[in-house]
Amino acid sequence: MSNITATPNTATPITASTPIVLTIAGSDSGGGAGIQADIKAISATGCYACSVITAITAQNTLGVSAIFPIPLEYVEKQLDAVFTDLNVVAVKVGMLADCDIIKIVAAKIKQYQPAFLVVDPVMIATSGDLLLQESAISILKSELLPLADLITPNLPEGAALIGSEVPDNEADMLKMITGLRQLGSKAILLKGGHLEHDENSNDLLIFPEDVHHLTAKRIQTRNTHGTGCTLSSAIASYLAQGHDLLRAVQLGKQYISQAIAHADELDIGKGHGPVHHFFSGHADVS
Predict the structure, then answer these.
(1) Which helix (H) or strand (E) element contains residue 239?
(2) 226 in active site
């Protein structure tokens, strides 16, 4: 197992040859997570963002009060509209809401075959609200996760995917590796952010044959809304720019660390506020 420390760095300006990244996710009316966070992160890290909205949420920094899944026909029309016109290099998938939406997204990924697929298996919001129907988890595991180059579960999501207890220490995280590998994705980024008693935020990047340990200093702030969406979108952006998976994850972790570090510069809402996606005007990372 290798140890990698994420340190802040900077990136390339947007040009005419900017790679295109598609986010397929739910909309957050509060602007801190979901499609809105994805578009901000993809743009800030140097790619062009397009989107397919799978659900509309009534949401703010205090929680989620309603979820309305987009009718399946209109999810499919959005997917076809984007893929038949835009040269999508990487796809990030977030909130999918129900079984039928998961199935159509998986079918369209197979049909159009983008170069990279990053799946953030969104099930639980920062506020604790359930964002994925429990009946849909098995469909997610059978239909979509095996297509992914990377999945990015946090500890509760990873535990839900493999039917284990939620880890409360890094030793328990390591015990999850075998089960997570059996999900069929090419790689898994198991995020340790929920281990709040640890001084650092430690993640495991799990490949079929080895595991990389990525660490960054834990930043004390309550403004962490949308961190998972932001990280997975940044990784998809760096993959689209030609970085290999390990480097894309390193850069994504550097970016989210800085976005969290600058989160308190914003004053948004009364609950868990968003991270600062544009912390340096144009957030360059290289």
Answers:
(1) helix 227-240
(2) yes
12 has catalytic annotation: no
Structure tokens at 242: 């030609």
Structure-token pair, residue 189: 């980024």
pLDDT in tens, 173-217: 999 999 999 999 999 999 987 676 667 778 999 999 999 999 888
Active-site annotation holds for 50: no
Decide if pLDDT at 281 tops 80.
no
Query: Which residue in the list 152, 229, 253, 273 is annotated as catalytic?
Result: 229
Structure tokens at 166: 């939620």
229/219 Cα distance (integer angstroms): 18
How far apart CA 206 and CA 281 sit, in angstroms, is: 33
**Catalytic: 54?**
no
d(CA 114, CA 252) in angstroms, rounded, equals 20
Of 277, 285, 261, 284, residue with least CA distance to 33? 277
The single residue listed with the structure tokens 């801190």 is 32
Q: Which CATH number does the domain 19-265 belong to among 3.30.420.40, 3.30.450.20, 3.40.1190.20, 3.30.1780.10?
A: 3.40.1190.20
Amino acid in position 269:
G
Q: Is 191 one of the catalytic residues?
A: yes
Annotation marks residue 228 as catalytic: yes
CB neighbours of residue 3 within 10 Å:
9
Q: What would the mean pLDDT of 64-91 be, rounded to a whole number?
A: 96
